[in-house]
Task: structure prediction
Amino acid sequence: MKRILFTLALLGSMFTLASAQTGNFNMVVAGTLPYNSPQHQDLSNIWGFVDTVGNEYALIGAANGLSIVDVTVPTNPVEVAFIPAPGGSGNCTWREVKTIGRYAYVTTECGTPGLQIVDLRNLPGTNLPSATWAPTIMSTQLKTIHALDVEGTKLYLYGHNIGNKGFIIADVASNPMNPTYLGIYNGSYVHDGEVRGNTAYAGHIYAGYFSVTDVSNPAAPVDLQTQNTPGNFTHNTWTSTNGNYLFTTDEVSNSYLASYDISNINNIQLLDKIQVTPGSGSIVHNTYTINVGGNDYEVVSWYRDGVVIVDAGRPNNLVVVAHYDTYPQDSGNGFNGTWGVYPWLPSGNIVSSNIEDGLFVLTPTYQRACYLEGTITDANTSLPIFGANAVINSLNLNGSSDATGFYGTGCAAAGSYSVTYSKAGYVSQTVTVSLSNGVVTTQNIQLVPLTSFAVTGQVVQSWNNAGIPNAHVRIYNALYNYDTITDANGNYTIPAMYDDTFMIVAGKWTFKNKCVSNVHISQSLMPPVMALDSAIYDEFTWDYNWSISGNAQTGMWERGEPLGTSYNNPGDANPEYDVSTDCTDECYVTGNTGQTSSDDDVDNGYTLMTSPTFSLIGYNNPVLDYYRWFFNAGGFGNPNDSIRVYINNGNTTVQADFCDVNGQLSAWVHKIVPITPLITPTATMQVMVRVADASPGHIVEGGFDRFWVRDSVLNSVHDIQWNNFVHVYPNPYTSQTSVDYSLANAVVPGAMVIVTDVTGRTVEQLPVTAKAGVVQVGGELGAGIYFVRIINGREMTEPMKVVKMK
Result:
């Protein structure tokens, strides 16, 4: 019976997905204050304050304390005071600050200070007394706190060192310099959040959700509801002015600002999610709501993307209406640039903390969005289409329809725009719409379905054209993805495809993957036959049953498209891309969550991947040919970890490759290792790759890709002889060259001389009909480097490099 696996992957989102135009608009820099001294760098979060005479201040968490900057004259920010960090908490990456009345409350995750409290009543003077609050709670003294929020006279301290690290509730009504402990939420770790009235919206970052928690009795908080967020790494939360909506950020690569309807906490609905630079990998950090002119806006710190203002007046259609990039020297994934923002100064200016580059005072223009909304339906059935795209072409802004067919998108500037509506399996449609600020333009679209057709193809052995059973085939482009497996004769059928241009990849264990690009497939144009060369080869497009073992707590080997994580630079810990010389995007990496560098690396042990068994009988000079990735940094003491590659022949295991911190880091490293000098080749060979985190622990990441066991290629371009039975001459050549051979075994049906180019693509094959003879090859080839080998059943000669001069 024919065995076919068939999948169709469609691009789209369950919800409206808005993306935003880039560049700086509707926001300008009024002034900056670089922080060059060691006591200041680097900066973390920021808050604002106004003294009794109306002077405006930025309160900035710096590396070694609290920096207080007068920003009353925005073009000339001046630091008026610096409050040193208490309790050995200097030189710290994390410092958060909020105010109640005329007092600042400062947290840090470094040292043992507890909560720092600064009396701001003497501003604009510089005599600013400070104290620390470090009570004993649940038999443990309060030492570190990640973040905090305030509501009325109450403090909510998140991510502390006590119990399960939820949040502590304290009151400062009676003594602002010495809070009164009220209670603790000890459910699970809380990273940040907002409290509104008696309800806490807490970000459980590692669990990936926010909780709605009743804190009316601080001694016994009660969770009412939880909701996962798009990136499952919930960093911060903030409510709308009317309290009916909640906005969240996920502090992961390629993350979103998301909006939810929380008017009924028993039926929380995700309404929309938005990115500033879709596909760049950028990381969102904090969001806050400000109401201007009766409309809500989200003011967002977005690390390398800078400061972003989103029109949140229609929470089901978020639109970016202002943007200023405070970190233009780099973009994408990485924890650089804008840490925090504060938008509520009476002047209307926004103060922003840039980790590396200091304070920015920004003057925004709060402008209503131009909204484009409607429904997308099937022209034949009138049923809603899920996951259809509506793209404002000149701005590359995209809205994606939900299950009801509703889509929403928009832009900051009014005008006439060309909009293209598309969906896999439908004819695309382009219309012109006129958009105005503060106006919802409704454009309903019906898409006409395309006619599908069945596609058939075949995967064969390159040397005799015999069909390869159970071979994998993937046919894909930006809209479609078809995966199937061949039957006993190497044939496959895809029941329903659409006229388009595709990439085709085919492969199987013991064969080398082959990929062909720009293949037009239609009812009259079927895919080409995919002829595969015999090889011990795996670029991990498909699962060929490498086994995974080990005792590491996290970071076990896993196969997939790598999701980069950053230590100092984008993608320097876990790789962001696989090796570029293979067909597809998959590889093996140690953990692949795409969050922070320390969250899914190899921790407290090792992870080992072991190949399927393969035979090296008949190979003359076999080599391991592969790419590996290794990153090792951070932690305590000198990094002491490693990646090791082993070879086993069924009886003995030897080490073939080793890299520790002194090796090349944060890069795919190509390795070619001769096998015969290390171990005797057998019919039961295996390769193993081990990455270990030795005590004391560090950040450890590994990768492995484009694995190939092959006979080594000779590099000479002179006449080549191999084992005295194959001779190629002349070499280099100009018209054609001769392959003079004498085989060790009798010729079997399908014996061939195979000529491949440098990509491995077969460019010529000629039959071999006698055990010895001469075959002329290369006459029709263009100038370049080629490889020639003879395949006679299981007998294969080593590839020989030949050069055609013209």
About this structure: The radius of gyration is 32 Å. Residues 45 and 96 are 5 Å apart (CA to CA). DSSP finds no helices and 67 strands in the chain.
